[in-house]
Write a structure and sequence with these properties.
The chain has 280 residues and is an alpha/beta fold. The chain has helices at 4-21, 41-50, 79-89, 99-104, 106-114, 134-153, 169-178, 191-194, 200-211, 228-243, 251-255, 271-279, and strands spanning 55-56, 65-71, 94-97, 118-121, 159-160, 181-183, 187-188, 216-221, 247-248. Strands 2, 3, 4, 7, 8 and 9 form a six-stranded parallel sheet that branches. A three-stranded parallel sheet has the order 1-6-5. Bound molecules: zinc ion. This is NodB homology domain-containing protein. Residues 64-249 form the NodB homology domain.
């Protein structure tokens, strides 16, 4: 039996209510790839719906913007040519870096930041997090990498990308409570797989061209193997997407958050010093 509220406001009210609750259904556009032990699309979409404002697979609106993201760096072979291409096109992207590589290549991480890109946490050494307790996940992976960022780059990021897209609900809740956003993707270019193909760059380009949509989060890599196909594809894709009317944004702008936590407040001045200032 319909509730009095529904009888009173009718179907139009229901539709309005539904559209408010689900302004946009978060959805992964690229199909599931069999045989690679990937997290199911259903699982990622369920988490995006279960944790709105925390777990993101695409932007919340319909603006013609797209966010390119690059994982697993910084990498001395791949990252410099990628930075060159992005600079040539005047595009800023989001780099989800591993704590172990930021530690090993601090100058490269600083160069990515200096070029105006946004940096996020991609764990310390890329584990399958589904097997980790919350304590190990936090201490040995997320917090450890936050500390590396603080040491090398002077800030801690608010954005975290789970390796393989694998993260338990309880880990999402832990990050939520720490004020960290979980960033997955809506378009998987599969560049890690195309890296092995002769025409890998065309395959990567094809995936983006076929599945791009307003407020897409596009997954690519500048670490974890040879990425010259990715760099070539990015060079062509930026021009193509601009021609289609897309502009490029970083993840923080896409979802409307600050990319870095505010620094902790400075320690209060010693008593004698503040008294001296007050006396002046
Ligand atoms: Zn990764």
């Amino acid at each position: 039996m319909a509730s009095p509220w529904i009888r009173r406001f009718g179907a139009i009210g229901l539709v309005l209510l539904a559209s408010l609750a689900y302004a946009k259904e978060p959805k992964i556009r690229t199909p599931f790839l069999e045989g690679w032990e990937q997290v199911s699309l259903e699982q990622m979409e369920r988490q995006a719906k279960a944790y709105p404002e925390v777990y993101w697979i695409e932007g919340p609106g319909e603006s013609k913007v797209v966010a390119f993201t690059f994982d697993d760096g910084p990498n001395p072979i791949n990252t410099p040519p990628l930075l060159k291409v992005l600079k040539k096109h005047g595009v800023h992207a989001t780099f989800f870096q591993l704590g172990m590589w930021v530690e090993k290549y601090p100058d490269l991480a600083r160069k990515v930041l200096a070029d105006g890109h946004v940096l996020g946490n991609h764990s310390y050494d890329h584990p399958y997090a589904g097997k980790l307790s919350n304590t190990v996940f936090w201490e040995d992976q997320v917090a450890k990498t936050q500390a590396v960022f603080q040491r090398v780059l002077g800030f801690t990021p608010t954005l975290y990308r789970p390796p393989y897209g694998e993260i338990t609900d309880s880990q999402v809740e832990l990050l939520r409570d720490k004020g960290i956003k979980v960033i997955s993707w809506s378009v998987d270019t599969r560049d890690w797989l195309s890296a092995r193909s002769m025409n890998g760059d065309a395959q990567i380009e094809g995936m983006v061209t076929q599945y791009v949509h307003p407020e897409a989060i596009v997954l690519m890599h500048d670490g974890g193997g040879p990425r010259d196909h990715t760099v070539e594809a990015v060079d062509r894709l930026i021009g193509n997407l601009k021609e289609q009317g897309y502009t490029f944004v970083t993840i923080d702008k896409l979802i409307g958050v600050a990319p870095q936590f505010a620094p902790p407040p400075a320690a209060p001045a010693p008593k004698a010093a503040s008294a001296a200032v007050a006396a002046k």
